[in-house]
Structure formats: C-alpha cells, structure tokens
C-alpha cells in the first residue's frame, strides 16, 4: 500500500494536472505560463467554474463578484472586531462559517469573495486601522489589495492577481482532497470550503510560506548565506522553499511568481535571488541523490510580503486563491454522486480466541 496515498488515483478531474516529472501544471487545458500574469482573477474563476454553473458573460461575472464582496462585508462588518481577536486565519475562517450555506452560483461567489474581504479587514483592525468596505466596480485582486493598503496601486494589485491565479488549483493536494471527501457526502459548498480551510492551515501545506521569511531574515542576520545554509542542511533541517512532494524538478509556479515580482523591484528580492542560488548549490552538494529545487513557497513569501501582507497572513491569502479550486472540485465530486470511502489496512492486535 502506498504510504500517504502516493500514486493512488482517488478521482478523475477536468480541472488540473500536475506533471511532477516534467515540472508542468495544466489548468483546464491551459499551461500555467499562459494564465499566470495574463489572466484576471475573474477569468480564472470562470475557467474553473465553467460547466458547474450557468455563468454569465465576463463583465457580468465581474459585477456579480464585486456584489458578492459587498454582500460579505455587509453581513460581517459588525462582527469584525470579534473575528480579528481570533487571529488572521481563524478569524477569516470563522467569518466564512457565518455566511449563508447553499450550492448556487451566488453562494459560490460569496465564498470566493469572503477571504478577499475578511482577511484585509482583520489585518487592518490588528494594526489599529479602520476596515475598508469593498468597491464593487474594482477587479477582485485590486479591491482586495486596496482593502488592505487603503490605496489603489496597479503594480502591486497585478502581482497579487498573478498570485491568486497561480495558486487557484493544483491537483489533488491535501486541502482539495479534504474538500472533495466532504463534498462526496452531499454536505455542500460551505462544508467543503471549511474542510479545505482546515487542511490548508497545517504547516506541511498552506502554512509553509511564512517560514521562508524567517529563513531569509536569519540568513541576512548571519551575513554568510552559504555557511548558514550548509549548517542547516548538515543538521538535517529543511531549507524552506525548496523541495516538493510531487515535483521532482523546479516548481513551475515558482517561475510564475518570480516573474510577477520583477516589476516590484527592491533589494529584498535581489537578496532572495542570491540566497536561492546559494541554496540550490548547497542542496546539490549535500543531497546529490535527491533533487530539491525551488518550490512555490519561496516566491510566494516574497511576493506577498512585497504587496503588504505580514507572514502570519500568508496562509489566508493562499486560501483566497485556492477557494475557487476547492469549490470547483466540490461541484465536480458531487456530480459523480459517489461517496469517497477508501479502505484501511488494520495492523493492530487481534482479539484472542475464546477457550
């Protein structure tokens, strides 16, 4: 039996394909490189939800998503101080759980809108600032960034949009599998989304990008990247942002996000690129029998920091991008009408035979 269900096919999907050997990600027939940096968040949402709902034309969908952000804010605004007290991720998750439960397109768009509204509001309250209401006429990513920063900055909004598109779906990862299992029971979109949120929180999944910033800060403080990285590897510790469960080559999402960072510039990014080069050399030298290349976490951390999100909020932004994928998978699974019920192999003691 495969440990961790490696190589076990648990579902057939039209949504995305992860080619770990070739380092390719295909989302509904499109290579990631053709989507990331070129498509709007709304276009990616339409791509994933197509066939699961009767979608309006693009301009109308953008308007509906803007109205969904406004609806979320209207429903949750009075509760934002209490949600903020729970922390960025748990407060966001609690706010989402308070929304109406249903399986219509309006319900799906409300769930997609929720992280974009709740996370910036919770972060602003934590900084002692007043939360900002959505502007329904803005694009989804631009409005999310404006609700965080208080200003409209097209370059940073485009970088955030690139991120949201880049992470919108990625095969049967842990949170998506959790969402599909719950959807297979007939529990609906809300329960599936909450299952995805629960799985994403773990440090082995969506909780991983934040420690990249801690690593970069530690390297900068040490003043010698090679010595610090070699010491970490020799002690058997992981270099954050390198290696992936599926990809055996460079994660294509890392290149997509690295490209999105270039217009933002800054010494932090140049420093991180130097650390990346040294880290790859160190890993080749000290782990020659196992290829460990740059993964999505490395440039996720840099991009989200550059557009204004603190490290403890990175997982919440990940949820904002992945929510559409969870909902599309939930709808796809529910339409099969099949309950996901894998078998386990018992390896514990057996009861003794009666005398």
Descriptive notes:
The protein has 355 residues and is mostly helical. The protein folds into 2 domains: 199 residues, Citrate Synthase, domain 1; 97 residues, Cytochrome p450-Terp, domain 2 (Orthogonal Bundle), CATH 1.10.230. Helix content is 57%, strand content 3%. The protein is built from 16 helices and 3 strands. Strands 1-2-3 form a 3-stranded antiparallel beta sheet. A hairpin with a 4-residue loop joins β1 and β2. α9 runs antiparallel to α10 and α13 runs parallel beside α15. The longest helix has 23 residues. The mean pLDDT is 93.
Descriptive key words:
single chain; 355 residues; mainly alpha; Citrate Synthase, domain 1; Cytochrome p450-Terp, domain 2; 16 helices; 3 strands; globular
Give me a quick take on this structure.
The chain has helices spanning 32-35, 41-49, 58-76, 80-85, 88-97, 105-126, 140-149, 154-166, 174-184, 189-200, 210-222, 225-234, 252-261, 267-286, 296-306, 314-336; strands at 16-19, 24-27, 30-31. The chain has 355 residues and is mostly helical. It is globular.
């Amino acid at each position: 039996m495969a440990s961790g269900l490696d190589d076990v096919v648990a579902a057939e999907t039209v949504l995305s394909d992860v080619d770990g050997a070739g380092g390719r990600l295909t989302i509904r027939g499109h290579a990631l490189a053709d989507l990331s940096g070129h498509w709007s968040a709304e276009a990616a949402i339409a791509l994933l939800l197509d066939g699961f709902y009767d979608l309006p034309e693009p301009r109308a969908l953008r308007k509906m998503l803007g109205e969904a952000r406004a609806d979320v804010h209207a429903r949750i605004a009075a509760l934002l101080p209490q949600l903020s007290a729970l922390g960025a991720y748990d407060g966001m998750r609690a706010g989402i759980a308070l929304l109406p439960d249903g399986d219509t397109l309006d319900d799906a768009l409300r769930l997609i809108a929720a992280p974009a509204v709740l996370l910036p509001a919770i972060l602003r309250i934590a900084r002692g600032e007043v939360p900002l209401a959505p502007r329904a006429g803005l694009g989804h990513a631009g409005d999310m960034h404006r609700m965080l920063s208080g200003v409209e900055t097209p370059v940073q909004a485009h970088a955030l949009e690139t991120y949201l598109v880049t992470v919108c779906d990625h095969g049967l990862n842990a949170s998506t599998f959790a969402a599909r299992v719950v959807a297979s029971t007939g529990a609906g979109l809300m329960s599936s989304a909450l299952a995805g949120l629960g799985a994403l929180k773990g440090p082995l999944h969506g909780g991983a990008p934040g420690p990249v910033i801690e690593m970069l800060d530690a390297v900068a403080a040490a003043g010698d990247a090679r010595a610090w990285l070699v010491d970490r590897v020799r002690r058997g510790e992981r270099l954050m942002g390198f290696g992936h469960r599926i990809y055996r080559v460079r994660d294509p999402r890392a290149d997509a996000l690295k490209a999105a960072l270039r217009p933002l510039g800054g010494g932090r990014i140049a420093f991180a690129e130097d650390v990346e080069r040294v880290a790859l050399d160190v890993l080749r030298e000290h782990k020659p029998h196992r290829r460990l290349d740059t993964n999505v976490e490395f440039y996720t951390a840099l991009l989200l920091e550059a557009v204004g999100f603190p490290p403890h909020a990175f997982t919440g932004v990940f949820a904002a991008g992945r929510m559409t994928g969870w909902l599309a998978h939930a709808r796809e699974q529910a339409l099969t009408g099949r309950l996901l019920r894998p078998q386990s192999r018992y390896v514990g003691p057996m009861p003794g035979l009666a005398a």
